[in-house]
Specification:
single chain; alpha/beta; 2 domains; four-stranded mixed beta sheet; two-stranded antiparallel sheet; 14 helices
């Protein structure tokens, strides 16, 4: 095995040995490693004391801006950390183990350019892991009590759309709403990627003699499915984001006049939340919290990718007590 191969193998073993927090190593350790690898390109010193500040618990020069510059040099512009690897508990030990892994490959024998190319490839490995972190990261919700329930749902869907997750999040949100509203009913729960035809489903959800279709991009094929539902004697709800309701209603009228109920996802979800809270502001937070708990349980039960789950805001939890 080449020196580069030995170094890459040892480095990856080091990374895989790091303790995980919600499925990912401490971000401070990854950030600190990126900075130390950058410093090694100009000063190949594998002594941990060279890379830590006075006191030995902080990595020198590992501020958020330094980490951001390294990530951006690899084309990764999404925010990863604000404080870099300066204050992470256990950081010194993690970085020291990384330096030991590199030391085991005896990279000092390599010419500087060849060694630096390898160090850059190790950084690239970490940047790829940062990319995976972003792809698996839960959606963060900001809860503002002064806003209407409708606006809270709208804000959530807009944030989901910004990261390309509005389709699955809309579907799971409606499923959670139906389960919250009808706790004694069995509300189906299949992964978002599973097609209706594979399961023999009439639509996304089926309650009583009504079928619900949830979409962020209505197609002609979906309207055909709605017409098939109607021929089967079912009532049909077509739920779309608020911004698409006007256009969707017009098309629904052309396809089956007066027979397809078109509503915004925001209204469909928020109205029940308000009703269950008896229109009490103090109770709304409790109902939204319960909705999110049900939502996360449903996603967790059927999705391997947990990035569709929602981080529950701390203030929402406090307001719900």
């Amino acid at each position: 095995m080449t020196v580069e191969g030995k170094a890459s193998t040892a480095f990856k073993r080091w990374y895989e040995s790091l303790p995980l927090y919600s499925g990912f190593p401490a971000k401070g350790t990854v950030a600190g490693a990126l900075v130390v690898l950058e410093r090694l390109k100009s000063d190949f010193d594998l002594d941990i004391n060279t890379h830590t500040a006075k006191g030995g618990s902080q990595v020198r020069g590992a501020g958020g801006s330094a980490v951001r510059r390294i990530l951006e040099s690899f084309g990764e512009s999404r925010r990863f950390v604000s404080e870099g690897g300066r204050t992470n508990r256990g950081l010194r030990g993690g970085i020291n183990e990384m330096l030991d892994a590199i030391k085991s490959a005896k990279l000092e024998r390599l010419p500087a350019k060849r060694r630096n190319d390898l160090l850059k490839s190790l950084q690239g490995f970490l940047v790829d892991r940062v990319g995976e972190f972003h792809s698996q990261r839960r959606l963060e919700m900001l809860y503002e009590p002064a806003k209407s329930t409708w606006q809270a749902i709208n804000d959530l869907l807009r944030k989901a759309a910004a990261v390309g997750k509005n389709g699955p999040i809309a579907q799971y949100l409606v499923g959670a709403k139906l389960q919250l509203r009808f706790p004694d009913f069995q509300i189906s729960n299949e992964s978002y990627s599973t097609a209706d035809i594979q399961l023999g489903r009439q639509g996304d959800f089926y309650v009583g003699d009504t079928v619900f279709h949830i979409t962020v991009a209505p197609t002609l094929a979906l309207y055909d499915k709605c017409k098939t539902n109607l021929e089967q004697g079912l009532k049909v709800y077509l739920l779309v984001p608020h911004s698409l309701t006007g256009w969707t209603k017009e098309n629904a009228e052309l396809q089956a006049a007066g027979k397809i109920s078109v509503e915004s996802i925001e209204s469909f979800v928020s109205q029940n939340i308000d009703e269950l809270s008896k229109f009490s502001r103090s109770e709304v937070a409790k109902q939204i919290l319960e909705l999110l708990h049900i939502y996360n349980k449903r996603v967790d039960a059927v999705e391997a990718n947990k990035s569709m789950m929602i981080d529950i805001p701390v203030n929402l939890q406090k307001l719900s007590k």
